[in-house]
């Protein structure tokens, strides 16, 4: 049987810190290795024909980490955007950065905007980086947008389809598959609205070690799932 490739895969890139610790390195080295790994997974996503790849890079809760680590993560992200934009363009990758602007420096916001603009016409793969992202924040922001929308009749009941349109990326279809590395069985405030019927795959492998083979294992597992959406399967 031919392998079904999910159109949209979302990844919680977890375990960088433990990867580094196991190797006697500082946590930031783990984050660097994680960024390098992302290139490998992007390449493989194109090869497989994945259309949308969302990765969780920084959550609204990650600000709680020591200042040094937060600073390192911001610099790493900024460096990633500068050093990779040409390669991304060559690969035909369109970049979207999704999340809240709150707390993010003006210089980084500017760089994000410029990089998105530079890659806006690419269409082989839509690469969506969830950065300063929180699922509850996204839903809260959506509610506030609904309340502030002057085109809506006040008090008019809202439908699910309409709510979906107020999310950060209404044009991206919901992910069929969510992968979490490093063995944690939790969602950590990732895409709460969008994952209602996503298949969940957890591997013990730390993100920097999550290679093409591990990625393909996740897709193979997805292919064995029986997706019922609350209904029953035909016998
Ligand atoms: C994921 O790795 C990257 C971010 C959350 C930014 P972690 O830094 O959470 O690594 P562990 O979970 O401590 O091993
Ligand atoms: C989730 O990982 C966030 C990212 C991968 C960016 P965390 O390491 O922050 O999640 P918890 O703390 O284990 O739930
Ligand atoms: Mg973690």
Report on the architecture of this protein.
It is a single chain. This protein is of the alpha/beta class. The protein contains seven helices and six strands; from the N terminus they run βααβαβαβααββα. The chain has helices spanning 16-22, 27-48, 67-91, 106-118, 135-148, 160-165, 212-223, and strands at 8-12, 52-59, 93-98, 125-133, 177-180, 199-202. Strand 3 (93-98), helix 4 (106-118) and strand 4 (125-133) form a beta-alpha-beta unit. Helix 1 packs across helix 2, helix 2 (27-48) packs parallel to helix 3 (67-91) and helix 3 packs parallel to helix 4. Bound molecules: 3-methylbut-3-enyl trihydrogen diphosphate (2 copies) and magnesium ion. Residues 12-14, 56-59, 62, 184, 186, 188 line the site of one 3-methylbut-3-enyl trihydrogen diphosphate.
Descriptive key words:
single chain, 235 residues, alpha/beta, 6-stranded parallel sheet, 7 helices, 6 strands, binds 3-methylbut-3-enyl trihydrogen diphosphate, binds magnesium ion
């Amino acid at each position: 049987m031919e392998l079904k490739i999910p159109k949209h895969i979302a990844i919680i890139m977890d375990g960088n810190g433990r990867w580094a610790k196991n190797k006697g390195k500082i946590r930031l080295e783990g984050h660097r290795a994680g960024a390098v790994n992302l290139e490998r997974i992007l390449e493989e996503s194109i090869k497989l024909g994945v259309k949308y790849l969302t990765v969780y890079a920084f959550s609204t809760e990650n600000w709680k980490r020591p200042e040094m680590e937060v600073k390192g993560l911001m610099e790493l992200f900024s460096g990633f955007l500068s050093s990779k934009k040409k390669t991304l363009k060559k690969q035909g990758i369109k970049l979207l950065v999704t999340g809240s602007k709150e707390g993010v420096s003006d210089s980084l916001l500017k760089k994000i905007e410029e990089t998105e603009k530079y890659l806006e016409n690419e269409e082989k793969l839509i690469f969506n980086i969830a950065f300063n992202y929180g699922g509850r924040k996204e839903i809260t922001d959506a509610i506030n947008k609904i309340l502030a929308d002057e085109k809506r009749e006040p008090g008019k009941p809202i439908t699910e389809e309409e709510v979906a349109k107020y999310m950060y990326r209404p044009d991206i279809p919901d992910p069929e598959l969510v992968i979490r590395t490093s063995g944690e069985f939790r969602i950590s405030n990732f895409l709460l609205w969008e994952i209602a019927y996503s298949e969940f795959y957890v591997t013990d492998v730390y993100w920097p070690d999550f290679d093409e083979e591990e990625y393909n294992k996740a897709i193979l597992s997805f292919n064995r799932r029986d997706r019922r959406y609350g209904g029953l399967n035909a016998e």
